[in-house]
Prior knowledge:
The structure holds two protein chains of two kinds.
Chain A lengths: L6 H5 L12 E2 L23 H26 L13 H8 L7 E3 L5 H6 L4 H8 L9 H4 L11 H21 L9 E6 L6 H12 L4 E7 L2 E2 L2 E2 H4 L7 H5 L2 E6 L3 H16 L5 E6 L18 H8 L3 H13 L3 H24 L18 H15 L29 E2 L2 E2 L21
Chain B lengths: L4 E4 H15 L3 E5 L15 H5 L4 E3 L4 H13 L3 E5 L10 H8 L2 H4 L9 E6 L14 H5 L5 E3 L4 H13 L4 E6 L6 E4 L12 E4 L4 E5 L4 H13 L4 E5 L2 E3 L3 H11 L2 E8 L4 H13 L8 E5 L17 H13 L1
Parallel strand pairs in B: 2-3, 2-4, 4-5, 5-7, 6-7, 10-11, 10-13, 13-14
Antiparallel strand pairs in B: 1-8, 6-12, 9-11
Keywords (chain B): Oxidoreductase, Thiamine pyrophosphate
Organism (chain B): Kocuria flava
InterPro entries (chain B): THDP-binding, Transketo_C/PFOR_II, Transketolase-like_Pyr-bd, Transketolase_C
Amino acid sequence: xxxxxxxxxxxGAAPRAPEPRTRLVRLLDxxxxxxxxxxxxxxxxxxxxxQLRGLYRSMALxxxxxxxxxxxxxxxxxxxxxxxxxxxxxxxxxxRALRPDDHVFPTYREHAVAIERGVAAAELLGVFxxxxxxxxxxxxxxxxxxxxxxxxxxxxxxGYAMGVAMDRRAAEAEGREVxxxxxxxxxxxxxxxxxxxxxxxxxxxxxxxxxxFFVQNxxxxxxxxxxxxxxxxxxxxxxxxxxxxxxxxGNDVLGVLAVTxxxxxxxxxxxxxxxxxxxxxxxxxxxxxDDPTKYRDREDERRWAQLDPLVRLEAHLRTRHxxxxxxxxxxxxxxxxxxxxxxxxxxxxxxxxxxxxxxxVYAEPHPLVEEERAWYRDYVAGFADASPDGxxxxxxxxxxxDGAPAAPGAPTAGLTVAADPDRPAEGTASGTEEDLA
Amino acid sequence: xxxxxxxxxxxxxxxxxxxxxxxxxxxxLMGEDIGSLGGVYRVTEGLKKDFGAHRVLDTPLGEAxxxxxxxxxxxxxxxxxxxxxxDGFTFPAFNQITTQLAxxxxxxxxxxxxxxxxxxxxxxxIGSVEHHSESPEAYFAHTAGLRILTPSSPQDAYWMTQQAIxxxxxxxxxxxxxxxxxxxEVDTGRPGTDPFSAQVLxxxxxxxxxxxxxxxxxxxxxxxxxxxxxxxxxxxxxxxLSPVDFDTLEDSVRRTGRMVVAHEAPTFGGxxxxxxxxxxxRAFYALEAPVLRVGAFHLPYxxxxxxxxxxxxxxxxxxxxxxxxxx
Lengths: 437, 327
């Protein structure tokens, strides 16, 4: 009997993906020289040396903060961290295009965006320390909390933008002047596969919602490369929805700023949604629970490291604007100070009181929550070491009074947790991040 | 002072929506075919004509998109009311309902509210095809952050619709679709009772039957039949499936000593199990028999030709009462 044909043979040669039709916008070349673009250069004509230095400062600060957070996770002070290294230009360039009233719907990697929106280090790191689910007030920062179930935030952004458009129509009907605003939804190339992203885009087109879909294509959905996720650049999908799509070099902060300004302006003027694809690269791991050496080659990483967004802007500032060492040293010091402050803040954070989580499940009183809260209070009060202020007694394996998690190898509730040198400290690895794609 | 009018349950929902829209310009309706067509059950008939397409949105076909954009609209200050066309089509929106809508208030430590109402025509015996006849209440009752109401009468349908929309929390209103044509008096001048309370519809002394939504008339009929055998059966309409008004149930069972919970959803893992367990914990010594459950089988909802054997009926409730009295 003949051997069955292999699957590969049965399928034949893999069909070739079509050549990208969408050009890549780039305003700073790989050596940091300025490029002229008839469509997008005018959008950053006002950006002078001082503003460029400000962009550099923000990117450098975000990078140093990100390094410090990674270190904190390795030291057992955060339960998880999702590094942004490599994506600084995509995040800083895009968020700088926003006005204060524009609303942001992020995933969980938008740390530079959050910092630029005024989210404090403690608010941000509280999420990754396991102290808060969201961390900050969306109403204060015009930025929703991080979305962990990826893609969920995209229809939220569309709905919010539909509301913006409705408010605008109502104001116009009443003859009131309103400052036009728009919405931006961040997500990654992996998330672009989620059905909710598709529905969010269909709804955005149907209602001409003032929303910009900003994809950071960092080439990887944990271990799955972009080639598995899409046959075409994601920006080209916009044509299928009937709105504009733009590809931009995501490691070129000036290009990202220009494209996002253009897109947000279009949306604010009521000309509908835009899909921006920023092509970048996640230089680090997906999260601290991940190991990129298992799925990608060093050569690829080395090649992308040469396209580092900070290096490119630094070259531009040095050659074109004569920015010298003093500036870069000053930025490095400021970034170090910020990182030191973040570290000190994290170490000073106390675990939240468990009981506070009963407070915000519902906006209105709920008898089951009240019943269980009362039961919990009585239960806690029944322990001999219950403190008089009702503070929860430390549970086995939980952080103790100084906030340090139980050491690996420490007995927890009768079980001994093995210390594995290849794993982060116990209490730091999360088994629940499969959706963090 | 308004006089009570007689309406079908479906028209009562329509009147409730209309009044909510009149009173609050931020109330929007969104769903598939709810505008010009008036919904597949015509529950939203006439509302687009009177309030305009900007307040009654005929959405594209995408349940996750409907609920997901409703979350965003609520974050912007609107009060969206989503219609999911049929119970079985809720599942494409399951992620948005359970991981997003239910949790946004808690995730933001109370900074934002998402007062979204989701109307779902639910339950069987309408002679339809697969995915048109399901009772998904247990999935949602299991999720903290959601509230679930189900009216069984036009009066409740009228008021619960408005109460759900006014609530700052997300509320799922399960509308018993086979009762859309049930007629009853609606008093628009008399405010509705607390939507999260159970109501004793028929007092009794020997046993309690708890039911909700489509099974309430069946439970009442069963009590009527039991009375012919000399048994006095109390009937409670649960009305709110999350939270559950256990106080009213406990008070009843302490008087009657026997309880049967009847619902259309499959018994295994259903809300009846939760009620039985809680009542056993609360009133064990008052019980003359275990709290018994009447529900559907652990089968996918069957084809229309045999669905009447799947959905509990009057005889199945009477059989459970017999078992209870046999203890």
